[in-house]
Amino acid sequence: MFKKSIAALLTFATFQIPAQAINGMPNACHVDQVQKAAWGLSQTGRERFLSDATLPGNLSVSDNEIYERLYSDIKKTYGGEKGNFGDADSIARKIKWAAECTGNDFTMLAAIIKGESMYCHLLHNKSGGDSGCGQFTSASINFFKNQLRLPGKIENGHPRMKRTIEDIMNRCAPGSSYVNEDSLANLFAKSKDQIRQELRTGKNLSLDILATAVYLKFYYSISGFYYNANSSKPGALSRYNGGGVANYGSMAYNKAIKISHDICMKDESYLESMQETACSLGEEASACSMNIATIEI
After folding, report:
1. Closest to 278 measured CA to CA, from 268, 266, 292
2. pLDDT tens string 209-235
3. Which residues pair with 41 in a beta bridge?
4. Residue 28 above 50 pLDDT?
């Protein structure tokens, strides 16, 4: 239902493949590869970037329930309250805040962070060199350097993209004590080695999670949807990985659905709503015909 032509959205430049996963979404490559990717942003793309992309089945979920679902899944992932760089409570609150202020569906953002770093538990993929909660590579870092038109990296940047990211930062900054309007630009103005060091040591997890949310929303602005198994075009979840891992989008989407179901397995009306959402987004036919009581978590 989110399908729209993206031909008018893009101008193209060459960049390297973005983050590869380290937990459940294996790394496809350990060396930089080259592909075509969108750098420009049309007015339609800007509107998508700034929109609320919450899935229909999650629109009525209360703030407290969003927190509880995230907290529960993070705690299960950690095997307790504490991870290597944070605790379940603080990471849940940071993901909730970042999803809300960037207009991402909270389950989609959580699924990316869970798949990439086990909810900021593993911040350095030593086999691939990826860094942070969202496992940023050189390509991801270059994206921000270009689009924020930072010194030495303005050749592929687009003024509309810069303005859009700044608008997002202005929206998000009031909700965090650890982020201000200039935090993203200040981070990515540093050298790549400095950026990687900060991401790998968990210096500012709020900013790390927010950068991941912005990067995911950029891909949503191109695709207009997160995941659709029946579409010939990749959604935001697949684009986040750069197409390097087969079925990355479906694996991330399944993680998101499990987060949605986690607290609500006894809520039949909620499960019916999520089942309808899955079917409308192109889930397998079996998911559209199964009895909701058989859904596995």
Report:
1. 292
2. 999 999 999 999 999 999 988 888 889
3. none
4. no
CA distance linking residue 88 with residue 76, whole number of Å: 9
What does residue 127 show for φ and ψ, rounded to 5 degrees? -80, -30
Is the pLDDT assigned to residue 284 strictly greater than 70? no
CA–CA separation, 12 and 1 (whole Å): 26
Residue 94 tokens read as 């940071």
pLDDT in tens, 147-185: 998 876 556 678 899 999 999 999 999 999 999 999 999
Burial class (CB in 10 A: 0-12, 13-18, 19+), 151: exposed
Average pLDDT of the chain to the nearest whole number? 78
**Roughly what angle, to the nearest 10 degrees, separates helices 106-117 and 248-261?**
120
With CA atoms as reference, report the closest residue to 217 among 59, 36, 56, 54. 54
CB 179 within 8 A of CB 173: yes
Residue 17: pLDDT band with limits 50, 70, 90: very low
Beta bridge partners of 36: 14
Backbone φ and ψ for 98, nearest 5 degrees, come out as: -65, -40
pTM over 0.85: no
- How many other C-beta atoms lie within 10 A of the C-beta of residue 193? 8
Closest Cα partner for 192 from 136, 123, 121, 244? 136
What sections of 201-235 are H helices per DSSP? Answer: 205-223
Q: Which of 222, 216, 294 is nearest to 256 (CA)?
A: 216
For the chain, how many helices (H) and strands (E)?
13, 2
Pairing of strands 12-16, 34-38: antiparallel
Tokens read off for 120: 């900021």
Q: State the alpha helices, DSSP H only, in 79-152.
A: 88-102, 106-117, 138-147
Query: How far is the C-alpha of 264 from the C-alpha of 173, rounded, in Å?
Result: 31
